[in-house]
Design a protein that fits this description.
heterodimer; A: 721 residues; alpha/beta; 2-enoyl-CoA Hydratase, Chain A, domain 1; N-(1-d-carboxylethyl)-l-norvaline Dehydrogenase, domain 2; 3 domains; 8-stranded mixed β-sheet; 7-stranded mixed β-sheet; 29 helices; 21 strands; globular; B: 433 residues; Peroxisomal Thiolase, Chain A, domain 1; 10-stranded mixed β-sheet; 12 strands
């Protein structure tokens, strides 16, 4: 059948409208919020291309999305989970490449009309098109995020992207997965044109017509190369430098834990050295290899875990959250001001209160610095910066608190003080306002015990620095109302956080688990290992920083205080180490004070080498011993996962999913290991149990295995879900 | 005569707020007039716990408009806590600009067009626009139209050194060329106001303002201003109020506008000031519906004007009797009086005028307004001490008068404001408590 001048065909995900020889193809995957490319969609697209090839009335095509604010979000990630072997994954990549080759070579050239996110397979699709137009809308983003899932672009992206925008720009996108806005994409040559969304379709149809009838050369070359591009990329020596630098960059960032960026680098390089066809071959082979790595499986697991979290209201009842338009923050310190800045970014009115003007002023300055950084990076305009600042009102009293929807208390970790401010606030705030404490340690029930409406009281434990750390731990007591929980969860999500809900208890989930881990690091110092060896071992394991560096970051005074609270609550199993106690007692507070286990160039300054003088304070003094890195890792990590398992067993955690997400996004547990519970599953509960028992034998009462681990190791059942 | 709002649309002054006032070139100098206006309205709304959706209109006054944002009011109304759909406009009636904003808003409430309005004003005298000379402007315009670089450069060859002298706006009357200070000086002479009386009045202004600041009455009408970008300066009170000044110090100052026979000095004049102030007005029924308690009702107001070449700042004398008559009141009914103090010589001239039968007749009345009891006048000082950001002063005075009526339990208060162009304003407030 030949399509007439104004014919319309409607398929499952694709519909086509023909306008005088131009086929406007609209992708709208039914029942999904965004378009993803799965097998069915790709098949349908293939059939469509077959039909167009035969229909000589169609001279060019426009590809657009039927979703209001998204183009193509990438491949359907669920299908990666079904891959059983590298070979199967390689074939999948080959099929994708073949599809893109068809898009590229189709008789009727295709104009990609891009509005909204164009990611992964979406990017590869538009790269194969003959012309790309993007809208100047903030939601229009292009990216190759495959490495974030432990994968590499598998449908020609490693070959077409460098040829389109140059080697360095392409590596920058492929190795980091970062988002590129339309304006930048236009500069890079990734887009041919940028237009207002209202005229996207019309311009795309015009361009399609020019491609078909003349005006635009389909074979035109990208001519955006500057001097640096020619020097570095136009010859084999320069490219060698680029590849070497890129590899060094990847290694510095990932410590070699992530195979995917290196594989992507190899695939790109193959294309340069052996030509495009061989490059495609390498891309498919490496995609296959990556798809079955444990790193990729864990990253994909985390992707689904966080996706599922977004649909969880944090309670077991279907409760609607209340709107949060105005919040009060008690305490304008580092945490309070951090929370204020993320709230202002989302348009929330903030009353930022502290005891005196100087503290409030410092808090406002901290907020302005966070927002100014976004202004400098051009993520916001000057007017947006001014608006966001205008949302934050500094106060030394409770004025304006009578209309807040939520109060977040971020005062010093002192129960009496927390009681005082709670009672003060409750006298002013509306009866249905929620009162959240940002405590990291004190049980919420203790804070709520003076409240006149304990059902409105919960914990919202943010992580420092708030604008950067993606986790929020919401803590509920048995008295907390489901509406309050759902509201805190929904608002935390508005702030861009992964929100886990945990039950109340000393140190909740994250603080308690982290304390067990850091405590063991302290015991290793007591025993005599060097600070460098310990930190290096855990960075090698995959933590972003080592435990001693982390202690300095958190603050030794804070760490000591938390340690005492948990010791009181859990007894000898979590008895604080001598090392931390002595160094804290010496008055060192860590980075914020400019003096800790490491040297700093001033309070809050840059970290230097280990402060050798600190060893004199430790139980074994300056004489240090070697313990194998594997034991250092094993002891710290087992302490971590054992405590996590206890939290699950005691019902602090609602699910292993929350435990994994909390550890990865709040505590820096290596993402490519999926989290403590995935780690237990990967190694096997029996293996973990054996390790714990061995160390328990040596260091009782530490390492006493969680009952749930004993049970699992015995029953041989997994920890899943 | 039907009184204001007697159609069942009484206008309530709900609350007011201002930034601390700062002498030009001091703490607030880096802030634009929009910054100041936005800051005060944002804080006013949040402090009042008012839902921005309730606001129907926003009117702001300013005297020296920003070249970059000519409609100051709209920039203020676009604050992020407010809906984008609040129509807003900017008014200018010299030093009575905020009063104009307030009476415009009040009129809209009386007419039934709006129920809730934010009105006020802002001024940054640290940020006045500096203009190019006409000749240099002409060159710039023609150069921007030139087609080639050569032609563009060629245009500049016409520039003469004198063209480069910038023009700064003077506070001078366009019609007479007389500066405000010269006018005050003339009034002092015409009305025989001795130097000592002026200095005494200035001293009184500082002492009363200092007392009002210290006991928290004035402070309660101000927001603390955390000054960006460092935020380590926090302005919590007006920086022009001097707790330590004395008559001797004031008397030691040299006259500015007539060095030989003059009496107007920097000490007995209001200083150039940066600041902003705003009030929330509501129809009485809306206030009731929202559960807010008004401070005061607007009973009446009047504007008047006279020849600027005569006594530039004397028109309050013409406005006050009209406002009183419209309210059906006499001065005897008034518990407190707030007069804008542009100059001590002006206030004292105005007070003299209130007692004068000649001025009463000029205003169309047979009896003078009367003698203002000094113990009820500017009880927390005035613009000489507190400062005078032109566009904001009217909202400051409205707020102070409404609050002070409440505190004293008085029934009626009167305010007057003199303004450039020979204009005057008067308004009567009634305690809503």
């Amino acid at each position: 059948m030949t399509l007439g001048a104004r014919d319309v065909i409607t398929g499952t995900a694709l519909s086509v409208e023909v306008d005088n020889g131009i086929a406007i193809v609209t992708l709208d995957v039914p029942g999904a919020p965004v378009n993803t490319l799965n097998r069915a969609v790709v098949e349908e697209f293939g059939e469509l291309l077959d039909r167009v090839e035969k229909d000589l009335g169609i001279r060019a095509m426009v590809l657009m999305s039927g979703k209001p604010d998204g183009f193509i979000a990438g491949a359907d990630i669920a299908q990666f989970l079904e891959l059983r072997s590298a070979r199967e994954a390689e074939l999948m990549s080959r099929a994708g490449q073949a599809m893109m080759n068809r898009v590229e070579g189709t008789r009727a050239p295709i104009v990609a009309a891009i509005h909204g996110a164009c990611l992964g397979g979406g990017l590869e699709t538009v790269l194969a098109c003959a012309y790309r137009i993007g809208t100047d809308h903030p939601r229009t983003l292009l990216a190759a995020p495959e490495v974030m899932l432990g994968l590499i672009p598998g449908a020609g992206g490693t070959q077409r992207l460098p040829r389109r925008i140059g080697l360095r720009a392409a590596l920058d996108m492929i190795l980091t997965g970062k988002n590129v806005r339309a304006k930048k994409a236009l500069q890079l040559g990734l887009l041919d044109e940028m237009v207002h969304p209202a005229i996207l379709r019309d311009v795309a149809v015009d361009r399609a017509r020019q491609l078909a009838y003349g005006g635009i050369d389909r074979e035109r070359r990208h001519t955006g190369a500057g001097m640096a591009d020619l020097v570095l990329e136009g010859n084999i020596v320069g490219r060698g430098v680029v590849f070497r630098k890129a590899r060094e960059g990847v290694m510095a960032k990932t410590h070699g834990h992530m195979p995917a960026p290196l594989a992507a680098l190899d695939a790109v390089r193959a294309g340069y050295e052996m030509g495009r066809e061989r490059g495609f071959g390498e891309e498919a082979r490496l995609f296959g290899e990556m798809a079955v790595t444990p790193e990729s499986k864990e990253l994909i697991y985390l992707f689904f875990a966080t996706t599922a979290l977004k649909k969880d209201n944090g309670t077991d009842t279907p409760t609607e959250p209340l709107p949060v338009n105005k919040i009060g923050i008690l305490g304008a310190g580092f945490m309070g001001s951090g929370i204020a800045s993320v709230a202002a970014m989302q348009g929330t009115v903030v009353r930022l209160k502290d005891a005196d003007h100087a503290r409030v002023g410092k808090g406002l300055k901290a907020v302005s610095e966070v927002l100014r950084e976004r202004l400098m990076k051009k993520q916001i305009t000057r007017r947006q910066f001014e608006d966001q600042m205008a949302l934050v009102g500094g106060v030394v009293d409770y004025s304006g608190f009578a209309s807040v929807d939520l109060v977040i208390e971020a005062v010093f970790e002192d129960l009496a003080l927390k009681h005082t401010v709670l009672l003060e606030a409750e006298q002013v705030i509306p009866g249905d306002a929620i009162y959240a404490s940002n405590t990291s340690t004190i049980p919420i029930a203790r804070i709520a015990e003076v409240s006149h409406r304990p059902e409105q009281v919960l914990g919202m434990h943010f992580f420092s620095p708030v604008p950067r750390m993606p986790l929020l731990e919401v803590i509920v007591t048995p008295r907390t109302a489901p509406t309050a929980t759902a509201t805190a969860v929904a608002y935390g999500r508005t702030l861009g956080k992964h929100v886990i809900v945990v039950n109340d208890g000393p140190g909740f989930y994250t603080t308690r688990t982290l304390a067990a881990y850091l405590n063991e690091a302290g015991y290793l110092l007591d025993q005599g290992v060097t600070i460098e060896a310990l930190d290096r071992a855990l960075v090698d394991f995959g933590f972003p920083v080592g435990p001693i560096t982390l202690m300095d970051e958190v603050g030794l005074d804070v760490g000591e205080k938390v340690g005492k609270v948990l010791f009181d609550a859990f007894g000898a199993r979590l008895a604080p180490s001598q090392s931390l106690a002595r160094v804290a007692a010496s008055g060192r507070t860590g980075r914020k004070g400019g003096k800790g286990f490491y040297q700093y160039d001033g309070p809050g300054g840059k970290k230097g080498a280990v402060d050798e003088s600190v060893y004199q304070l430790l139980p074994t003094g300056v004489s240090r011993m070697d313990i194998p890195a594997t034991e250092l890792q094993e002891r710290c990590v087992l302490a971590f996962v054992n405590e996590a398992a206890r939290c699950l067993e005691e019902g602090i955690l609602r699910s292993t999913r929350d435990g994994d997400v909390g550890a990865v996004f709040g505590l820096g547990f290596p993402p490519f290991r999926g989290g403590p519970f995935r780690y237990i599953s990967a190694r096997g509960a029996a293996t973990i149990l054996r390790g714990l028992e061995e160390y328990h034998g040596r260091f009782a009462p530490r390492f006493e295995p969680a009952g749930i681990l004993v049970e699992m190791a015995g029953g041989g059942r997994g920890l899943g879900g | 005569m039907a009184s204001y709002g007697s159609n069942g649309r009484r206008v309530a002054v709900m609350t007011g707020l201002r930034t601390p006032f700062a002498k030009a070139g001091t703490e607030l100098k880096s802030l634009s007039v929009q910054d100041l206006g936005r800051a005060v309205v944002a804080e006013l709304i949040e402090r009042s716990n008012l839902d921005g959706k309730e606001i129907d209109t926003l009117i702001f006054g300013t005297v020296i408009p920003s070249v970059l944002a000519p409609n100051l009011a709209r920039e203020v109304a676009l604050l992020p806590m407010l809906p984008k759909g609040i129509p807003a406009y900017t008014v200018s009636r010299a030093c009575a600009s905020a009063n104009q904003a307030i009476t415009d808003a009040a009129d809209q409430i009386v007419l039934g067009n709006v129920d809730v309005a934010v009105a006020g004003g802002a001024e940054s005298l640290s940020n006045v626009p500096i203009l190019h000379s006409r000749a240099f402007s002409d060159v710039l315009v023609s150069a921007s139209r030139a087609r080639t670089l050569g032609a563009r450069i060629g245009k500049f060859s016409r520039v003469r050194p004198r063209d480069l002298v910038p023009i700064t706006p003077a506070i001078a009357e366009p019609s007479t060329g007389e500066t405000m200070g010269q006018s005050a000086e003339k009034m002092a002479k015409l009305n025989h106001i001795p130097r000592e009386e002026q200095d005494q009045f200035a001293l009184r202004s500082h002492r009363l303002a200092a007392a009002g600041t210290q006991d928290g009455r004035l402070a309660s009408e101000m927001m603390p201003f955390y000054v960006p970008p460092a935020y380590d300066t926090v302005l919590t009170h007006d920086n022009g109020v001097r707790t330590d000044t004395s008559l001797e110090q004031l008397q030691a100052l040299k006259p500015v506008f007539d060095k030989r026979y003059g009496s107007v000095t920097a000490g007995n004049s209001s200083p150039l000031t940066d600041g902003a102030a705003a009030v929330i007005l509501m129809s009485a029924e809306k206030a009731d519906a929202l559960g807010y308690q008004p401070l005061a009702y607007i009973r009446s107001y009047a504007y008047a004007a006279l020849d600027p070449g005569e006594q530039l700042l004397q028109a309050p004398v013409l406005a006050a009797p009209v406002a009183l008559a419209r309210a059906g009141l006499t001065l005897a009914d008034i518990d407190i009086v707030e007069m804008h103090e542009a100059f001590a010589a002006q206030v004292l001239s105005n007070l003299q005028g209130f007692e004068s039968r000649t001025w009463a007749e000029r205003a169309g009345f047979s009896e003078p307004v009367g003698e203002v009891d000094r113990s009820r006048l500017n009880v927390m000082g005035g613009s000489i001490a507190i400062g005078h950001p032109f566009g904001a002063t009217g909202a400051r005075i409205t707020t102070t008068l409404a609050h002070e009526l409440q505190r004293r339990g008085g029934q009626f208060g009167m305010m007057t404001v003199c303004a450039a162009g020979g204009m005057g304003f008067a308004m009567i407030l009634e305690n809503a408590g």
